[in-house]
Design brief:
This protein has 7 helices and 4 strands; from the N terminus they run H-H-H-H-H-H-H-E-E-E-E. By secondary structure, the protein is mainly alpha-helical. It folds into 2 domains: about 190 residues; about 55 residues, no CATH class. The chain has a two-stranded antiparallel sheet.
Length: about 250
């Protein structure tokens, strides 16, 4: 059963996606870029908390896999950073300061850096898998809103998954820039979730169902609307009075 608390959490998730995109842009600004990076991480965890709240009710495996894999990806990046930094320090000490155990220090430093680089690759691979899980969830619930908006959201998730894959190929250099652009666009596209999740009228409910009226599955979503309120099939705007065109997007209603 979908209720207003679930839709509210999805709206918050969309808003956090938008904030991540904004702070991802700020991360490129010299001098304050590190602040943008920190805030990207903060709002990623906020978005994952939204998914946690949603899944307390839905108990959906795809959402749980998305959340767990994304958390795993973030933790791997943290471990990678704390592996590469001391590794670099070891190598700097070995080459700049004459020490008897030169070879051992170089080996330790090289191992730490190699471990960090491998963890970075595995982190982006996990992130890509996480986005694929989220894509599958929205594809199974494609009728949640208008097909045009849902198509943009799914395309945004695809961009995020492709961007993560390109980031995993960072050794080629140019892929990092392309991956950054794709993820920036993807976050803004996924942020449209905030506009899709409209509030349900008190007289209405959203149920998970399939083509059979006697059984329910999470494949599609059917909105049982009240007699006094309708929704635009294209943009989801709530319509109280009879009319020919939607006041929000201009789509024909009849």
């Amino acid at each position: 059963m979908w209720n207003n608390s679930i839709l509210s959490a999805f709206r918050d998730f969309g808003k956090n996606m938008q904030l991540i995109a904004i702070f991802l842009l700020i991360s490129l600004i010299p001098g304050i870029g590190f602040i943008g990076v920190i805030l990207v991480i903060v709002f990623k965890f906020a978005a994952l908390n939204n998914i946690k709240l949603i899944n307390l009710s839905l108990q959906n495996d795809l959402l749980e896999q998305f959340r767990s894999k994304m958390i795993s990806s973030i933790y791997r990046l943290f471990i990678a950073i704390f592996s590469i930094i001391p590794g670099g320090i070891f190598l700097a000490v070995a080459f700049l300061i004459p020490i008897g155990n030169f070879v051992n220090i170089v080996i330790i430093g090289s191992i730490l850096i190699a471990l960090g680089l491998i963890l970075i690759i595995s982190a982006f691979v996990q992130e890509r898998k996480a986005w694929k899980n989220l894509k599958n969830f929205f594809e199974e619930n494609y009728n949640l809103s208008s097909k045009i908006i849902m198509r943009d959201i799914v395309q945004g998730i695809d961009n995020l998954a492709t961007g993560a894959l390109l980031n995993a190929l960072y050794v080629f250099g140019i892929t990092i820039f392309i991956g950054y652009i794709l993820q920036l666009v993807g976050y803004f596209q996924v942020a449209k979730i905030a506009n899709v999740m409209i509030q349900i009228p008190e007289e209405s409910e959203i149920i998970l169902t399939n083509s059979s009226p006697t059984s329910a599955t999470p494949n599609t979503v059917l909105l049982k609307q009240s007699k006094t309120a309708n929704f635009c099939p294209m943009c989801g705007t709530r319509i109280f009075e009879k009319g020919i065109f939607c006041a929000e997007c201009g789509s024909r209603l009849t």
